[in-house]
Fold:
Amino acid sequence: MAAGAGALLFAVAAVAGTLIEHYDGTLHVNWPPLLAQWMPHVGPGTLPALLTAVAVIVYGPSLAARLSWRRLTWVSWAAALAWTWSLALVDGWQRGVTGRLTTRHEYLSGVDRFDDIPATLRDFTRHILIGPPDNWPTHIAGHPPGAVLTFVGLDRIGLGGGAWAGAFCVITGASTAAAVLVTLRALGAGSTARAAAPFLVLAPGAVWVGASADGYFAAVAAWALALLALAATRTVRAPWAAALGSGLLFGVTVHLSYGLTLMVVPAVAVLVLARTARPLPVVGLAVVGFAVVAVAFLLAGFRWWEAYGLLVERYYQGVARERPYGYWVWANGAGAVIAAGLAAVAGIRRLPAAVRGARGADRGVRSPDRTVALLVAAVLLALLVADLSGMSKAETERIWLPFTLWLPAAAALLPARDHRGWLAAQAGLALLVNHLLLTVW
Structure:
């Protein structure tokens, strides 16, 4: 019933959105609620995607149950890579990978303006608004400079161009599945994490991970949380290094996307789930790591708070000025349903029961299911804040990837006997979206 409600939400958003777009064109998407266009097609990635899906559905649950943790983590990353690459190549190499980050709105269109990086950073905020000469392309203006600097760095080491940029986003983005597993295991939810692994691999959000920068953002944020969990629970040889590394990655995260400041919500959940006083020194080291990145950008001339204020103004200079809040405040959820998958929606329905069940059995026991439930609930809370802010009107199937890629973990709460059926639903949804629509961003 929960999955059906998710499907119904999407159907209503699609019908209402189509009517609104045909009436006054204020949604500015061709196939609401998704930023896509109707284009049934197949491509070189079709057969590999089908084979990958079948392999994960048939063998995924059993392999996840018996592999060692080290192997499970690597196999999950490899399987997520195969799934993401296959889906990207359904659109072909040029349209699905090479051309994704080279459009006039994307990061690569501004790489050549960073010949003098310090000078460009000092001048960065002057080009955010529409109006001044040489204003930044949409995606550069809409993000802190850490995002475009990533691609500048790739270009400087000889990996310039759309092909390398797309491959970088796919490879890093696919590692999010491994990061989620590391986090859950560190927090004592190893058994539930094993059940979640195939769902994390076949996440429909992989359609947008390959190849968008938001997939890369998702990976950085996920590994920041993973290192924080390892440090807080002392499940790594050098917890101080993990804490410092987590802080550095959180610093990078908020300089990749302004909206990822909301990662503080699942970060707090991780510290709470550690259930000891040991996270206190961990927080101090993480703050030091965060400060290193923040101060480095500040000394380079970039003032995050000033840029964010200008971004809000730039946001409403564009199509967001016309996109109706009254539609997107609930239709955004329909996009999240597609990115997370119906199995995730069904699993989310079980979050309250997972928490109550653990408390009823023994309040002093950290139940694996309860850990997963509380962490997913924290992610949902962050999404709610993002949604109500009005700064995420449309395109949330891509923009919210750093959050929605955690939601398939909730599917582990479903009865084990049904897992293969739910995995088939996840894969089928992704395949339908990728073969019936041409997703754009």
